[in-house]
C-alpha cells in the first residue's frame, strides 16, 4: 500500500506526462531507412569468384533452399610436361528466400568466404517464385555487403593476419641470418681473394646448376628467400 | 437587428462550434495519446502531421454501408445516433463563453436545469441503441449504460446544485456574474465530483465499462456501421466539449481571468475548456478501465457523499457570509 492514498493515481499521470515530453520512438520506416548493424540478416550475397562448388552450403542448409548446378572442366597443364587439372565450374547458384529461414548456416559453413550477409531487406515480391534469387542477383547483393565491424580495442588479431605476419617474420629472420652469413663469407672471400687463383670461374659454375634443375626458371627466385642477395655470395651459405 | 436573422446567426455559430470543436478535440486526442505512448500518431493525412486524419475518417465512414440487423427494431435503431448527438448541440446553445448577450446562444433562466436535463437525455441514445440492436452484447452495454447513468447523474446534479446555491441563481450567466475567485477553492470538491461524474456519463475511459471494446465489443454500438457509428463517436467528443465547457462555467469562473477581463473573456473560457479537454485525454491514456462493481462503488460510496459534503460546506459558508 502506498503511504498516501491516491499517490498511485498521481504517479500514473506523471508517467504519461513525462512520456509526452520525451522523444517518440516511432520509426518512420518508408520515409526514413532503419539504421541496421553490419551483421543484420537481411539477404545472402554470393561472391561467386570465391565459390568452388564444394556444395557444403547446399548440404548443410536445413531448408534445402540452395540450388547448385556445376560441371567439371579440364584445365590444360600449366607447364609443358605437367598434369592436366580438373576444375569445378558453377552453372547455377540460387537461394529460394521463400524457404530460407535466415539461420546463416550456409555462411558459417562456407570454407572459401563466398557467402555473406547483407542488411538489405526490401525484396518482397508479389509472386513467390520471384523470391528464388539466381546467381546474378545474388552477386548483385554483394555490393550491399558492408565492411566487417572493427575489432574490439584489445582483441586478438584475425587468424589470417596473424598467419601472414608469422610467415613474414620468419622470412625476415631467415633473410637476416643469410645476410649475416653472406657478409661473413664476403669478408672471408676478400681476405682469401689474393691467395686463391680463380674464384670467379668456380662461382659461375655453381650459379648455373640450380637454373638447370628447375624447369620453370622464373619460379626459383620467388621460392628462394632473399632474391636480392647477390648470387655470388650464395654458394658458401 | 432583425429577430429571425439574429436567431439564425446564433444557431449557425453554435452549429459551427458544434462541428469544429469535437473534431479539434478528437485530433488532439490522436496526437496527445500517441505522444503519451511514445508514438507519433497520424502523420500522413493532410500532409502536415496528419491534421486531416479525422476528415479522412469521416470520408471513410460515409462510404461504408449502413447496415440494420434483420431482427433489430428498425425505427429505434436508426433514431438512436441522433438522440445521442442532438442533446449536446442543445446544451451548447445555453453555455455562455463571454459576458453579455452576444456571447451565448440563448440565455436560459433555468440554465442548470436545462443543461442537466438535456445532457441526461443524451444517454438515452445508448439505451435505445442497446435495446434495439437485438444483440446480447449491445443489450449488456445498454444495461451497463443505464446503471452508470443512474449512479452518476445524482452526484453530478448535487455538485451543480452546490454552485447554484453559492450563486443564488440557476442561470448560467447569472452564476458567472456572481463568481469570485475564492469560489474555486471553496467549490473544488464539487468541481472534482462534477468532472468525474461527467466523465462517467460520457462513458470515457476509465469509466468506459458500457462500451468496453475488449469485453463486450463496443456495447450498444456493436451493430452500428458507417455514418451512424460515426455519429455516436461524434457524440462522445461533443460530450467532452460540453462537459469541459460546463465545468469551466460552473466551477472555474468561465470568462473571468487574472487579466484581460474586457473583450477577451471568451479566450479564457476557451482556454479553460481546452485544458480540461486535455485532462480528459490524459486520464484516458493513464488509467485502465474500471470494473463494473468498482464503477458503482465509486459513485455511491465516494462521489455522492463528497457531493453532499460540498453542499453542506456551501450552505455553511453561505449562511456565515450573508
Your description of this structure?
The complex is a heterodimer of chains A (237) and B (322). By secondary structure, chain A is an alpha+beta fold. Chain A has a domain at 27-144: Alpha-Beta Plaits. Helix content of chain A is 36%, strand content 14%. Chain A is built from 7 helices and 5 strands; from the N terminus they run αβαββαββαααα. In chain A, 9% of the residues are buried. Chain B is built from 12 helices and no strands. Chain B has helices spanning 3-36, 53-63, 74-94, 111-132, 136-167, 172-177, 183-186, 188-202, 213-216, 226-251, 265-286, 292-321. In chain B, helix 1 (3-36) crosses helix 10 and helix 3 (74-94) runs parallel beside helix 10. The termini of chain B are far apart.
Concise account of the structure shown:
The complex is a heterodimer of chains A (237) and B (322). With 237 residues, chain A is an alpha+beta fold. In chain A, 36% of the residues lie in helices and 14% in strands.
Features:
heterodimer; A: 237 residues; alpha+beta; Alpha-Beta Plaits; three-stranded antiparallel beta sheet; two-stranded antiparallel sheet; 36% helix; disordered C terminus; B: 322 residues; mainly alpha; 0% strand; globular; translocase (chain B); transmembrane (chain B); ubiquinone (chain B); NADH_UbQ_OxRdtase_su1/FPO (chain B); cell membrane (chain B)
Amino acid at each position: 500500500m502506498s503511504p498516501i492514498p491516491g499517490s498511485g493515481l498521481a504517479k500514473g499521470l506523471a508517467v504519461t506526462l513525462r512520456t509526452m515530453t520525451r522523444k517518440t520512438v516511432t520509426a518512420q520506416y518508408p520515409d526514413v531507412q532503419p539504421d541496421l548493424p553490419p551483421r543484420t540478416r537481411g539477404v545472402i550475397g554470393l561472391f561467386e569468384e570465391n565459390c568452388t562448388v564444394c556444395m557444403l552450403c547446399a548440404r548443410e542448409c536445413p531448408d534445402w533452399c540452395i540450388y547448385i548446378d556445376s560441371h567439371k572442366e579440364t584445365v590444360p597443364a600449366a607447364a609443358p610436361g605437367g598434369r592436366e587439372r580438373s576444375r569445378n565450374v558453377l552453372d547455377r547458384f540460387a537461394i529460394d528466400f521463400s524457404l530460407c529461414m535466415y539461420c546463416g548456416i550456409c555462411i558459417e559453413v562456407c570454407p572459401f568466404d563466398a557467402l555473406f550477409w547483407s542488411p538489405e531487406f526490401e525484396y518482397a515480391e508479389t509472386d513467390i517464385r520471384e523470391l528464388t534469387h539466381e546467381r546474378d542477383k545474388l552477386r548483385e547483393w554483394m555490393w550491399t555487403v558492408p565492411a566487417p565491424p572493427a575489432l574490439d580495442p584489445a582483441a586478438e588479431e584475425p587468424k589470417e593476419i596473424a598467419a601472414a605476419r608469422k610467415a613474414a617474420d620468419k622470412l625476415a629472420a631467415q633473410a637476416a641470418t643469410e645476410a649475416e652469413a653472406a657478409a661473413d663469407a664476403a669478408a672471408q672471400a676478400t681476405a682469401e681473394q689474393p691467395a686463391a687463383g680463380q674464384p670467379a670461374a668456380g662461382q659461375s659454375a655453381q650459379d648455373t646448376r640450380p637454373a638447370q634443375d628447375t624447369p620453370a626458371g622464373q619460379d626459383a627466385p620467388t621460392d628462394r628467400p632473399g632474391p636480392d642477395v647477390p648470387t655470388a655470395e650464395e654458394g658458401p651459405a | 437587428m432583425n429577430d429571425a436573422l439574429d436567431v439564425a446567426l446564433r444557431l449557425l455559430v453554435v452549429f459551427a462550434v458544434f462541428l469544429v470543436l469535437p473534431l479539434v478535440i478528437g485530433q488532439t486526442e490522436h496526437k496527445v495519446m500517441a505522444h503519451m505512448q511514445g508514438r507519433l500518431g497520424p502523420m500522413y493525412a493532410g500532409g502536415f502531421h496528419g491534421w486531416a486524419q479525422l476528415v479522412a475518417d469521416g470520408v471513410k465512414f460515409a462510404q461504408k454501408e449502413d447496415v440494420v440487423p434483420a431482427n433489430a427494431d428498425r425505427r429505434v435503431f436508426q433514431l438512436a445516433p441522433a438522440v445521442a448527438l442532438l442533446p449536446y448541440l442543445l446544451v451548447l446553445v445555453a453555455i455562455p463563453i463571454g459576458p453579455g448577450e452576444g456571447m451565448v446562444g440563448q440565455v436560459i433562466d433555468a440554465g442548470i436545469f436545462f443543461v442537466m436535463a438535456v445532457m441526461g437525455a443524451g444517454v438515452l441514445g445508448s439505451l435505445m441503441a442497446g435495446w434495439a440492436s437485438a444483440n446480447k452484447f449491445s443489450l449488456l452495454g445498454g444495461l451497463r449504460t443505464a446503471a452508470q447513468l443512474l449512479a452518476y447523474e445524482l452526484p453530478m446534479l448535487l455538485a451543480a446544485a452546490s454552485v447554484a446555491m453559492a450563486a443564488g441563481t440557476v442561470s448560467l450567466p447569472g452564476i458567472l456574474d456572481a463568481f469570485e475567485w475564492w469560489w474555486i477553492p471553496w467549490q473544488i470538491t464539487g468541481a472534482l465530483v462534477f468532472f468525474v461524474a461527467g466523465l462517467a456519463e460520457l462513458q470515457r475511459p476509465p469509466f468506459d465499462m458500457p462500451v468496453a471494446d475488449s469485453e463486450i465489443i463496443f456495447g450498444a454500438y456493436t451493430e452500428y456501421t458507417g455514418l451512424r457509428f460515426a455519429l455516436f463517436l461524434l457524440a462522445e467528443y461533443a460530450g467532452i466539449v460540453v462537459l469541459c465547457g460546463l465545468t469551466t462555467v460552473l466551477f472555474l469562473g468561465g470568462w473571468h481571468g487574472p487579466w484581460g477581463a474586457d473583450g477577451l473573456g471568451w479566450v479564457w473560457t476557451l482556454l479553460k475548456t481546452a485544458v480540461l479537454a486535455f485532462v480528459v485525454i490524459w486520464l484516458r491514456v493513464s488509467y485502465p478501465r474500471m470494473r463494473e462493481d468498482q464503477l458503482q462503488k465509486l459513485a455511491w460510496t465516494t462521489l455522492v457523499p463528497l457531493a453532499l459534503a460540498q453542499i453542506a460546506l456551501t450552505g455553511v459558508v453561505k449562511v456565515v457570509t450573508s
